[in-house]
Write a structure and sequence with these properties.
The protein is an alpha+beta fold. Among the domains are: 181-237, no CATH class; 283-347, no CATH class; 362-429, no CATH class. The chain has 8 helices and 14 strands. It has helices at residues 6-21, 39-46, 146-153, 257-264, 304-308, 332-339, 350-359, 421-429; strands spanning 71-76, 79-83, 118-119, 125-126, 181-187, 190-195, 229-230, 236-237, 286-290, 296-301, 364-368, 381-387, 395-402, 405-411. The strands form 6 sheets. The chain has a 4-stranded mixed β-sheet with strand order 11-12-13-14, with no helix packed on it. Strands 1-2 form a two-stranded antiparallel ribbon. Helix 1 runs parallel beside helix 8. The longest helix has 16 residues, at 6-21. The radius of gyration is 51 Å and the shape is flat.
């Protein structure tokens, strides 16, 4: 059993109030339901209205009717009509040669295994030549250097005002025309707007390692593909770079002219090495002779004279047991005593122990109005702070400095086990 103190009673009353605040008052003629009608649902219902689909440009539906094979064609702004598909069949493109232009047509299908190749202007699938360029010079084409770009940016717009010629091969796209029309030949270097003969054909099908591709339209390159090539698998990619640097001792590469000259200067079998042979020796203590190549060329047995010549006594040395004043052998009793000790680091000296006892403070009690800050408190004082009680009893909360913080260690009231907030929660929950 536990008793209910003032703080516990206050906590209990607050818990009852919180439960009562959440109750729903009974209304005459109405019952309770778990299907509550929320404010959000009320606002959502109030905002509903009948929908009328707009008929302006950009909002019109696909027209009804049509038939198999037809497609939608522009009719007016935001309006389309069903029209017939005028399909055109194309032959495979004719590649160009050194003496003749090629002819337009479908890209030839790549064979299996050619998915990594690129379509050449001669109509074959091949690996492009290396496209690594240096900066352009006055005698060789190449990349634009940052210096040349700076120079170009410094030239004013219209610095060399250009008048476009009007001869054949230089005429502009004619004005006029209408939606769906295309440019057709009219005269030498002249085009006119004519009605489009729509052509429908499938997309080029790339080859795989196990299947041939198919004729069709070359897939449109993105901006990021502008410097790439069409691969036989139907994707745009950059051919593998075949530019190599000179080889080093740690990296594969091209052989330099200097390395080739060095290699040519090495005769066949130039370092054909035969290790010299010497007389074998049994296990033992030997004096050895080493030749200029670092090999052991001779070995003679060590004799007593060789050892004594090093300053080692020729007779045995006898030692007595050590004492507190003389070096010597350790006795078995001293060894037993030594083995009984722990590591030296685990022991405190007599001086150290005395210092710690002298420095240790004694626990004191001190009644204070307010609890001091941790930085101002002493670790050997119990600070007693008077607490307000309903009956006016003189009770004190007790605090000590523990690990750099002020911690409550108890109070001066009679030790009676009071009911806890957790126990009150358990009772209310039941």
């Amino acid at each position: 059993m536990a008793w209910l103190d003032y703080d516990g009673l206050l906590y209990f009353w607050q818990k009852i109030k919180s439960k009562l605040d959440g109750k729903v008052d009974k209304v005459t003629g109405k019952g309770l339901s778990t299907n509550d009608y929320t404010t959000g649902e009320k606002n959502k219902l109030a905002g509903l209205s009948n929908y009328t689909h707009p008929t302006s440009s950009g909002n019109k539906h696909i027209p009804a009717g049509g038939s198999a094979g037809q497609f939608l064609k522009w009719s007016a702004d935001g309006t389309a009509v069903w029209a017939n598909d005028n399909n055109t069949t194309y032959t495979t493109m004719t590649g160009a040669t050194a003496s003749a232009d090629g002819k337009e047509g479908l890209a030839p299908k790549p064979a299996k295994g050619q998915q990594g190749l690129y379509l050449r202007g001669d109509g074959t699938w091949a690996t492009p030549t290396n496209t690594t360029y240096g900066n352009a010079t006055t005698s060789a084409a190449g990349l634009m250097s940052s210096g040349d770009k700076t120079k170009l940016d410094g030239i004013a717009a219209g610095a060399n005002n250009y008048v476009h010629p009007t001869t054949a091969g230089n005429k502009h796209v004619p004005a006029g025309g209408a939606a769906g029309q295309i440019l057709g030949w009219s005269a030498d270097g002249t085009a006119k707007w004519v009605n489009e003969k729509d052509t429908t054909y499938g997309t080029f099908k790339g080859a795989t390692s196990s299947a041939d591709g198919g004729n069709g339209l070359v897939p449109g390159p993105k901006m990021a593909n502008k410097d790439q090539y069409l691969k036989g698998d139907g994707t745009w990619g950059t051919p593998t770079n075949t530019t190599y640097n000179d080889a080093t001792q740690s990296t594969h590469g091209l052989m330099t002219a200097a390395d080739k000259k060095k290699l040519d200067g090495v005769a066949a079998g130039a370092n054909n090495y035969v290790h010299p042979s010497y007389t074998a020796k049994d296990s033992g203590l030997y004096k050895v002779t080493v030749d200029a190549s670092g090999h052991v060329s001779a070995a003679t047995a060590v004799v007593k004279a060789d050892i004594t010549a090093l300053g080692i006594p020729a007779t045995n040395t006898t030692y007595s047991k050590s004492t507190t004043s003389a070096d010597g052998l350790m006795s078995k009793e001293d060894k037993t005593k030594l083995d009984g000790f722990e590591q030296a680091s685990t022991y405190a000296s007599k001086t150290y122990v005395g210092q710690q006892i002298s420095a240790a403070g004694h626990i004191k009690k001190s009644i204070v109005e307010t609890l001091p800050e941790a930085k101002d408190a002493k670790d050997n004082i119990i600070y007693m702070v008077k607490k307000v009680t309903p009956d006016g009893t003189n009770l004190y909360d007790e605090y000590m400095l523990i690990s750099g913080a002020m911690e409550k260690i108890g109070d001066t009231k009679t030790v009676i086990e009071a009911i806890t907030n957790t126990e009150i929660d358990t009772i209310l929950a039941s």
